[in-house]
Each structure stands twice: as structure tokens, then as C-alpha cells.
């Protein structure tokens, strides 16, 4: 199987990639490259492809694979913000700052509040191999929590509650209890196995493996 160099400054992302790709026989190693420029773009795929182009010269072996994953939190009430600027928003606003932007969106009816605070995590996983560039996409519907919850995960995980899923993995209707549930807890408050059932990153990696023709 492949030796995959994962370009990221986030050790949490590396751990997730190892968790999902390691059992398939792939060796995932952390690649850190100074000076990678975050392009100003409207699409996650554009950002990911730019990073691949910038980092490919740093592969120790041209036959190795290069992985880049870019994700964003898209909040409906904020017109999709922070979206592709999620990393910047996290470093400047943080989780508490994002919650303050939504302070006015509350309801005693939990069903109504879930609709008011609707959000979606989106991810793109881009892999450069000797055969070309392959792109996988994934998303996770959910809502912004009323408060920070949990100490695990990374990024905006402590304020994102995923929508329940049915047995097929499809999102349940808002307010409907699904067969797979975090029971109102955020990504940061559940273990990696449960998070993986919802995770946009997991879905993007699985889609990427499909593009590569690798069994999931």
C-alpha cells in the first residue's frame, strides 16, 4: 500500500487519517512545510489543489502520495460564514466568538432553535499520486450548540452538534431521533469512533478512496 504524506499543521487531522487509512494498510506520516500560502478562494477544492501544488516539491520520494484536507464550517444564519475562512475565524474569533455572533438565535423550542442555528461542516480531501490528483468530498449537517461542550476534537468541534442519522447514514429530519446519535453532544464530547459515523472528513476520505479505487 501507499506511503501518504499528510500536509497539515493539525495533529488531530493526522490522528483521524491514521485511524481511517491505517487499517487499510496505508502508512500516513505528517508533512510540515513552512511558507504554504492559504489562497483566497471561494471553494474548498481550489484551496486544496493550491496547497498540493505548493507542497509537491517537498515529497522525499516522487512515488509517495501527498494528501491535503481542507474543511470549513458553514453557518446558515451567517450566510455561510466562516466557510473557507474557518481557520482564520478560529484563530481570531474562536469558538466563543462564533457563539457570540449567534447570541440572538435562541428559542425555548429545541426544534425551532435547531433550525435557527443550522450549520454544515464540509470537507475536501485531495490526494496527489503518480497517476494524478484525486478529490473526495464530504459533508455533515448539524447545528451550532448554545455553549462550548467537550474537550476533544479540534477546530470548531466543541460548538458543532451533528444531526442524527438513520441506519443508512442519511441525516434524520430536524427534531427526529435517529438510530445514530450523539444525544445532543458536540463532536468534541464524543469519541473518535462515534464522530467518524458523522464526520465530514471521514466521508471525504471514503469518497477519495472510491476515486482511487481503494476498498474502504
Characterization of the model:
- With about 220 residues, the protein is an alpha/beta fold.
- The chain has a single domain (about 5-210), classed as Maf protein (Alpha-Beta Complex), CATH 3.90.950.
- Helix content is about 30%, strand content about 25%.
- The chain has seven helices and seven strands, in the order E-H-E-H-E-E-H-H-H-E-E-E-H-H.
- The protein has helices at about 10-20, 45-55, 85-90, 95-100, 110-115, 190-200, 200-210; strands spanning about 5, 25-30, 65-75, 80-85, 120-130, 130-145, 160.
- Strands 1, 2, 3, 4, 5, 6 and 7 form a seven-stranded mixed β-sheet that branches.
- Helix 1 (about 10-20) links the parallel strand 1 (about 5) and strand 2.
- Helix 3 (about 85-90) packs across helix 4 (about 95-100).
- The longest helix is centred in the C-terminal third of the chain and has 13 residues, at about 200-210.
- The protein starts with a strand and ends with a helix.
- The model has no long low-confidence stretch (mean pLDDT about 90).
CATH first level: Alpha Beta
What's the rounded overall pLDDT mean?
91
Q: What is the number of independent domains? A: 1
Strand fraction: 15-25%
Report Rg.
17 Å
Describe the global form: globular
Amino acid at each position: 500500500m501507499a506511503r501518504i504524506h499528510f500536509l497539515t499543521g493539525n495533529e488531530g487531522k493526522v490522528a483521524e487519517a491514521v485511524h481511517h487509512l491505517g487499517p487499510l494498510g496505508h502508512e500516513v506520516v505528517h508533512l510540515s512545510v513552512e511558507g504554504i500560502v492559504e489562497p483566497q478562494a471561494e471553494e474548498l477544492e481550489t484551496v486544496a489543489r493550491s496547497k498540493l501544488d505548493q507542497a509537491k516539491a517537498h515529497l522525499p520520494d516522487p512515488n509517495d502520495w501527498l494528501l491535503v484536507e481542507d474543511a470549513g464550517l458553514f453557518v446558515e444564519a451567517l450566510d455561510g460564514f466562516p466557510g473557507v475562512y474557518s481557520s482564520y475565524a478560529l484563530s481570531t474569533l474562536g469558538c466563543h466568538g462564533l457563539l457570540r455572533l449567534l447570541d440572538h438565535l435562541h428559542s425555548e423550542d429545541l426544534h425551532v432553535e435547531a433550525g435557527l442555528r443550522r450549520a454544515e461542516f464540509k470537507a475536501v480531501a485531495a490526494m496527489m499520486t503518480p497517476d494524478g490528483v484525486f478529490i473526495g468530498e464530504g459533508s455533515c449537517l448539524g447545528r451550532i450548540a448554545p455553549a462550548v461542550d467537550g474537550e476533544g476534537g479540534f477546530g470548531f468541534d466543541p460548538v458543532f452538534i451533528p444531526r442524527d442519522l438513520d441506519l443508512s447514514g442519511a441525516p434524520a429530519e430536524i427534531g427526529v431521533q435517529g438510530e445514530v446519535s450523539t444525544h445532543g453532544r458536540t463532536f468534541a464530547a464524543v469519541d473518535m469512533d462515534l464522530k467518524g459515523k458523522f464526520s465530514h472528513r471521514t466521508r471525504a476520505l471514503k469518497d477519495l478512496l472510491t476515486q482511487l479505487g481503494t476498498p474502504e
